[in-house]
Amino acid sequence: MHRDYKLAKRILQGERAAFAELVDRYGAPIRRLVGRYIENPADADDVTQAVFCDLYRCIGQYRGEAALTTWAYRIAVNRALRHCKRRPPDCATYDEQEIEDVRPGTDPANEALKGELSQQVHSAIHALSPPHADVVILCELEGLTYAECATVLEIPVGTVKSRLNTASRRLRDRLAEYVLGEPSSAATRSFTEVLP
Amino acid sequence: MSRCDRVHEELKAYQDRELGPLARTTVALHLRGCPTCREEIQTMSRLSALLRSQPADTLPTALRDRIVEAMPTGLPDAPPTRPRRTRVQLLWASGAVGVVLLAASMPLLTSTFSPRRETAGLAQRHDPSPNFGPQSAGSPARENVGAAASEQTPASTATGPVYVDGKLSSAGSSYTENRMQEANGRSSTRSSTAGTDSYADARHAVPAASPTAATTPPLYNAKKAIVGGLASSPAAAAFDPERERQVHREGSLTVQTAKVEEASDLATRVVRDAQGYVAQNELSTGDDNLKTAILTLKVPVSGFEPVMAKLAKLGSVTARALSGEDITDKLTDEQESERILGEDVRSTEASLRTRRSAGQGRHDEEALRSLRIRLAQSQARLKTLQRLGSLSTITLQISEPPKPAPAAGGLTDEFGDTLRDAAHSFQQALRLPLQMLVWVIVYAPIWGLLLFGYRRASRI
Asked: Exposed, middle or buried: residue B56 (CB in 10 Å: 0-12, 13-18, 19+)?
């Protein structure tokens, strides 16, 4: 936390290298978090950039009381939600969709299964109500503690706990074929192969 | 709601290691005996593994460069000069400084301007013992006061706090207590006579027409005014920790007793007597045939320690844990937040009325709705905090002591073992001759025939 505070002070003095360090340190998690909310990659990139602009502008308000990630996540979540509210999720055009090259040395079938699994998880999370989806994204996918999640979403820790519990049950029902290990589904077999 | 239903609500937090030690132990105990919940938690673990197996992206270099290049020009906004939280902290700090200054100035004021010094003579003026600080009740200062002082109540017999075994004794703490009582605007319950030995008493006892009023120096009156003013100031009033601080307390107690049900009933009665209630009660018998009762008790904060003391008498205490969280800051922040949000809501409503008449105001309506939601959330948080501050939680575990195992070792056992070994060895030694005897008996006809043939042969 002290390291974050020092970095914030350097940015406050207008040090460009410090800002680059901030981007290097938190760019990937923030982009990933934004990507959880915004499906369109181009939009997610724009929002990530806007988040860093906000971070730069408001860095003076950071007092080092919490981790900078928590603070940055709060800004990112607010930005992403505002974006979703302003522009409802639409289908990405063909040329906007990223077609990832298959990396050499990887099994294309396994990669495809991973992609399918990821899609299923993504759909299941987005089928939840927004408050429940928020806690799942932050706690389960981003690995935040309940207290950090409560800070980011500005809700009590008890609410995080109850929402996560409810969301967990709903997700279990939606992803039953992967989670309950029913042998009937081909996806179950793929899940066991894909999981590390 | 069944026990499983209650535990189900905690299972996710248990799996994420987000439960406190007490709740964690409770869930772990339940899981040991409930296959359904064990199955549930395994499913949750699989779900978490599935969710966390999602690939971790890295920031594309192009995007990274784009963000860095798009770094806004100019310096970031300077930090706010007077954030609300800082103001609250400043208020507390100024209150604390005021109290410290008041406390520090007391001995000086008392030693210089005390009415006792005016009446006690020169001997008192040269008394080297300080009036504030560790001092015995029978110090020279006390003895020189005279007959009037000797009639006073015990609380007023010392001018400073008396330390007994390193602790402030109740009788000797009159000075501090008086200062706090004055600061809190409470009336002193003592009756004092003229010529009392402490400033606090003089302040209460000196009426306008009293004999000492004529001899009271002007500076003494000035001091009275200063202290009186300080006593009524908000900083001094904010000093009372009992009134102002809100502390949520939690405790856990593990007690061993042979009569678990009886102890559980007694604990319930103790809690009810203290105006509390039993939030949860579970009685189970383990694999080792030992009964265990786990009770979650809610008691008012004021009754926390007496209840803990009474519960400790239910049996022999094997574990005890206490924790407390000062939620005053949170409460103050929440109250302030609620107040500001309320003001915002009112001003937005007023603005909305004006704009509506002008045919505008859609934006204000949205802002008002958002503000109302935030206000309601703030009020809910405040209510929760207030409830937390008024009730404390005690987790009581009552268990039967383990059954005593038969004592091992000792001379008798060794002797018995030796005897058993000897008998075994003797049995082994006897085995061969006995077997041979059996053989001889079983083959007796053959031996008989052989003997008969031998005799016939020898006769011939």
From this structure: exposed
